[in-house]
Batch of 4 targets.
Target 1
Amino acid sequence: MIVSELILPLFMIFLTLGLGIYAAAVLDRLLAARQRIPVADSAWRSPLSNAAWLLLQQTNTTEAPDTPAWQLAPALYLSLAAMGLSLVPWSPTLIATDLATGLVLWGSFEALATVVIFLQGWAANAHLALIGAYRYVALGLSYLLISMFVLIGVALPAESLRFIDVVEAQAPLWHVIGQPLGLPLFLVVGLGLTFWGPLNLADSSDLSGGTSSEISGPLRLVWQMARMAMLVAFSAVAATAFLGGWLGPWLPGPVWVLLKTLGVLALLLWLGRSMPRVAPERCVTLMWVVLLPLAFVDLIWAGTLALLMA
């Protein structure tokens, strides 16, 4: 009985990851085409042809790398994305991992992602990759603190850390409306967690690829897939925490979760293509002086609203 109850949630996780990774790659190439950035192939075929090309490439190596850690880091990052997606409820009864501390566990995945990204840069034993890793660690704490305040804010009305309770607490009013600062701040966390677009400081072009500057072939493919998978997992968590998860008229709950996840994913990709990359020193100031105080304001607002509605 337990095995049969897990089959459908696991199927939804792998289906969402697979479709989400492909959709993210296609959307990113469509946005690149709109900006007149050359794309070698059709946006629909390009992700598949690029994956096939990387699979056939020879794997690079450096002098005295930590080979086991170097090969394990992309798989670990992909695993964190899959485990994060397992926390997302598709309906009141359809969820792979229903924990009383689901929000806390997601926060731990964000912290572990920092360790894995640093491991990716450190294990290569190359200076550009190591600089990219240290860049990410220097900013990782600010992302975690902003995420912590914002997620506590969505937990207060539910009086629970379960994702299911957070969704059910949004039946009268979605958190994107009741806590207007929450979703924008959480999207910043998502851009930082996946080092995407304006917050791509770990794998940026000024470092010739940063933490991924020395990898090629299948390892590079897994690293790219892991970044896309983390974008998908983060989008699903954002849709659950701020957009009401499965709540919606007419359509089944899982369909609403998929549609909202794709909507947040498209928004993150558009932000990544539309906004210029922030300089590292300015990013530190932005996080600690502007966004972190705003996250604290969001927490006070959420607590006050929860008291008034109690």
Target 2
Amino acid sequence: MAKQIQAIRGMNDILPDQTGRWQALESVIRRLVASYGYSEIRMPIVEQTELFKRSIGEVTDIVEKEMYTFDDRNGESLTLRPEGTASCVRAGNQHGLLYNQQQRLWYMGPMFRYERPQKGRYRQFHQVGVESFGIASADIDAELIIMTARLWRDLGIADHLTLELNSLASNEARAVYRQALTDYLREHKEQLDEDSVRRLESNPLRILDSKNPAMADMLSAAPKLSAYWDDESRAHFQSLCARLDAAGVPYTLNERLVRGLDYYNRTVFEWVTDSLGAQGTVCAGGRYDGLVGQLGGKDTPAVGFAMGLERLVLMLEIANTLPIADTVQVYIAVGGDNAELPAQAVAEKLRDHFPGLRVHLHCGGGNFGRQLKRADRAGATIAIMLGESEIAESTFTVKYLREQREQVSVNWAGLQALIEVLGLI
């Protein structure tokens, strides 16, 4: 027997008993972004490697350690996208969508990073990203955060999430702060772990995000970025906070929140949870006003966020708040060979009359008892039994599978009325 081929480690199959929750989640997200006036954009999953080196930063963990990069047959270096913002900006620049325009865009799809697989973190993972271009004021920052708060309410998981907020200020102010932070960290170099020593000269702000408990006290005493905010960045942040206060969205100022990508400036935020163990960030984003110009376009203000679908699905399983989308509603049980063609015709007639009704027509024979067990396992609300007596009398026997009610015999009009009364459409 040939050896079975397994999925690549960290690249998981999403099985039929799981996809219903994914579909329900995706439907809620699609409705939400549409209600805020955002349009979908779809980008390829393979891009030129240079795109991510220029946007994310060559000294970040993603570029140094985590990207899936390869040379194609022409010797061009290509990379499976590790995140969506750079691809979205590339597409906007390439197709003339961004300069001197306002755009509200969103996307959904797989991303790829070579990381150690663990709960909620995989090497192929799925993200929803929402990006806004052409608006420099804090009102759009607030809208994006308020949108995410509404999503948590719609999903029934708002009690599991808290918002952390910070400002990275302007590039100029951050450069001054970076020097002060670097000077401080050099004085405490003996307390830095190996990763932090490596980052000290290349990306010292990322050291603030360290989860090493041995460094916690030292980092808590480090200079605070807020002391270096320029007046414009301070006013922007205060405006954002005022808008969140007015919308009733609570938040916590976290001055060690810096995000892992080099392109952020001013607003940065994360929605975090303690329901998923160590992988506590569910949604994160911020402002990246310099990225469009950095990737060859005209300078354009921009802000966005991304959320991991795997982690949201885990949260939905914990909270058990979102109904599964693709459960069978009507199961047609077939009594004998003579009933097969009439049953097929009934199934198609139901689909014609009730678009969207989830109808499962039994195939493969078997007695009614066995078929009804399958109907129950499929989660059907009712089973329609169609045998020789029903065909002779032009009726349908309907068995309730989710209620303690007597089965009934109805004609076509009665079947239509029953489906409507049960709210199956």
Target 3
Amino acid sequence: MGAYLLRRLALLVPTLFGIILINFVVVQFAPGGPVEQMLAEMRGQGSGAIGRLSGESQGETTRAPSGPAGGEGAPAGNYRGARGLDPAVVADIERMFGFDKPAHERFLTMMKGYLTFDFGQSLFKGRSVVDLLWEKLPVSVSLGLWSTLIIYFVSIPLGIRKAVRDGSRFDAWSSALVLVGYAVPGFLFAILLVVLFAGGSFVQWFPLRGLVSSGAESWPFWQRAADYAWHMVLPTVALVVGGFAGLTMLTKNSFMEEIGKQYVLTARAKGAGEGRVLYGHIFRNAMLLIIAGFPAAFISILFTGALLVEIVFSLDGLGLLGFEAAIRRDYPLMFGTLYIFTLLGLVMQIVGDVTYTLVDPRIDFEARR
């Protein structure tokens, strides 16, 4: 197992490099970069924007990162927004954002900083990318962790019960509920929860925004914990309803496949009770894929499933931050979040492989060729 882990860790570097390189090349052809946005703003606001540019050029504000993480396919002077502007002003804008250098030089500078987790400065927020990621991380981790845990605690017992009572009334009506949960997107259910329980049209039992109430910092610990749980109810429920359906059916199908195997019939023939057969023999084999998939499920909810839910409930997390960075073409922030997301995803794949061996020691990755 040790040699296998070393090989997987060694593959992290080229895989991560390749993903960042591909996305960097794609960004070169994407229109509407930060230089073009600044030029459009200057055309719309005239001397006020030019005055701000002059101040930034003299060092009053540092907006450029240590190494820009993207760029445009054409020089700023060829933009429509650049027409009618002094070429010196356009050159200052390119220099301010770091786009006066060739693309390959910008990429190498960016990757050199990424080796030490130096992602530079956000182009439009004027803050370190690391500080922004660290600030938003607790929101997304809270939402992803609690949602994943509840999904597993609900789906696994429900899936086992459906497998044991396959074809019964319970299996039929629970399958109908699972189908509804699978069909309704999480963000639509989030809007419904807001309308019903967050002051939309009926009652206001739960807060609509954030994870803590105003002034909660001065409250006792137990009161802050209760306030945090109160804020987490609606967004967590919105993610759970949309996420438990697939895992429930996977659990049921896994148990159904194992129930008919010979070792189960042998255990029953020896007089083992139903509980012993179910949880002593079937559980380990049936739950192998499900338990080992927990790290990947957590990452999926953390970085993909929670975006629209964060927007609905005004939760300022990583999903919303990445969305805003893409809209504003904030390249250091875009590629910083991409780097972190990709790195965590690759690491969680390795954690998933390790979990396989913990659930079933018979699995030996060293024997794979």
Target 4
Amino acid sequence: MDGVNHSVVSEFVFLDLTNTWEIQLLLFVFSSVLYVASLVGNSLIVLTVTADRHLHSPMYFLLANLSLIDLGVSSVTSPKMIFDIFRKHKVISFGGCITQIFFIHVIGGVEMVLLIAMAFDRYVAICKPLHCLTIMSPRMCIFFLVAAWMVGLVHSVVQLAFVVNLPFCGPNVLDSFYCDLPRFIRLACTDTYRLEFMVTANSGFISVGSFCILLISYIVIIVSVQKHSSAGLSKALSTLSAHITVVVLFFGPLIFFYTWPSPSTHLDKFMAIFDAFLTPFLNPIIYIFRNQEMKVAMRRVCRQLVSYRKIS
């Protein structure tokens, strides 16, 4: 490298997801509909929780923040992917690529902590109902939110600190529709084996560790409830089912990306599309249709909006 330690690559090129025009059209319609639906669904949850005083509780506070994060998840990579589908030259600037990586890992870290906080809230509500308001106080909710953002920021900044100054002098083709650390690092003009291992171990450890914490919390809740009554067990499972589904949808692709040694290109792209479009779309649907209180509150807020428009 002759002592060169700065990047000479000003942009990166994304490869086509498919070369068939019909599939491109189908992918464009599919991704556009899911993106708009995820924006509407998550925005509706945030609006409903904010506007309806009946939902001013720790569970819905955390749910509204999770929906805000899902808005970010769908907006970091999806709009550019939709915009690029019919373009022959799909490029992103070096700064744009770094920005995508930064927000992907910030949002991922925040969502992990929020899901753990929601599991803790369910544990308190089911196993310690008499102390629920005391333990899950507004101060505790704010603590979880601040901790989530701190974890997300530290996780992202620490990883980027090791890669942002890597030398990029030639290869600039990413076989994907967005930037992420594993592929980004491989394009550097230097030996990156240790750095790749560090990034994979970091993100993989956090993903698997958080998933295990959540699994343990569910097992503790189920065992604790089962000791008291079988009727309570079915109620607890009904309460937890939506949360467990969201956790599996979120952690499935993450664990795949960072622990699978050499995934096939097609499977990798499918999981990436699933993570970018389907998960943010399914999360509000799961929480809305599995929660009677949320459905009632949404109808109430919609009636208030209609009444306000008629008056004005």
